[in-house]
Amino acid sequence: MSLLADAEFRPATEIAAHARAAWAAQRVRLAGSAFYRALWQGAAVPARPEDLAVLPLSDKAQLRASQAAHPPFGAYLAAPVEQAVRLHRTSGTTGQAMNLALSARDAAVTATVGGRAQRAAGLRPGHRVVHCLNYRMWMGGLTDHLTLEATGALTVPFGVGETALLIRTIRELGVDAISCTPSYPAVLERVLAEEHPGLSPRDLGLRLGLFGGEPGLDDPAFRNRLRETWGMEPRNANYGVSDVLSNFAAQCEHDTRLHFVAGDVLWPELLEPESGQPLELRPGAQGELVLTHLLRDCQPLVRFRTADILVVEETAPCVCHRTGFRFRVVGRSDDMVVVRGLNLFPSMVAAVLGRFAELSGEYRIRLAAPPPYDRLPVEAELAAGRAVEPGLAGAVAAAIKADLGATAEVRLLPHGALPRTEGKTRRVVRGYE
Prior knowledge:
GMP Synthetase, Chain A, domain 3; 12-stranded mixed beta sheet; 4-stranded mixed beta sheet; 20 strands
């Protein structure tokens, strides 16, 4: 079984037929997974992906335990270890880093599907794109580099660090696109201000920003700030789950919602996070994304809980002719903070803070003690050149109350007080862990 050419543009009926054929081959491959044989305890594996809900869910904690007991790849390795040609590690943002084994076909599928997403976001032959994510074993480095190359764009493998050299490289090579986290432009701005005071971000000539790895771009104020400061069009170009596929969704030039572009290799489900009950994948549905590999050699996952909470907003084809469902990521279940029964995510707080010109947009939700919580503690950083104005903290707290329903304790910090990072930025800090 192989990828379906131009799958992102195929009708739903063709995608479904291909998915069923792919699953028929994949369920045979899963016979080699001791992990799933133990998890399923002899249960019959359904013949169709539509019937997968009869099987138990799997999650990250189980995979971690399996790798600890059966290092380095875990008992869910379903192919001979000699078939693995590349090893990655997850970033470890939410816990112990995981070892990811890819066969040659796994690597090719990952690059091809990621290329679909990057193309949807506007990257084309003729672009010169610099890739600024960590290449050191993390999936976001080399693998995402290959997704950029898959579009036909000239790709510059820069990585992280040496920001002054990056600025010189962009100018000397005529780079017009950048691939990085949404928080990285703030690092570039700081270095420009410190080392090139006569040079503005617009002077670098970047016209397309391809972002991923963090939330933030759903905030219109943040997008506008990037456009105004940099003169580039920000695109949500890189949504994925490292254990599953590094990039399988992106926005297009017509719609800021993420387009699912992997229907030929991934079977998506939605479930209610607390009860685990399946939800219909229809417009308006909100739940945790669960994914199953339809095509994976080394470490195939079945009904894997991603911990990402998303809202399905559209299932009809987009004007860009891509047919996958469109969605927004609300947040991660492990980043959710419950305040007096309200489920709050960092992206919701960011949307409120983004409306205040007095703030830089940098913030942290700093939790000093375990739950329950009756207030939301927010640290918000002032914009450059701004001093604390009387009543500003109260106005921010009032806006959070009005929009989110939660009482907030807002602490204003001087500009630059919160660290900028070249990697993923953690917005929820649990000081008691």
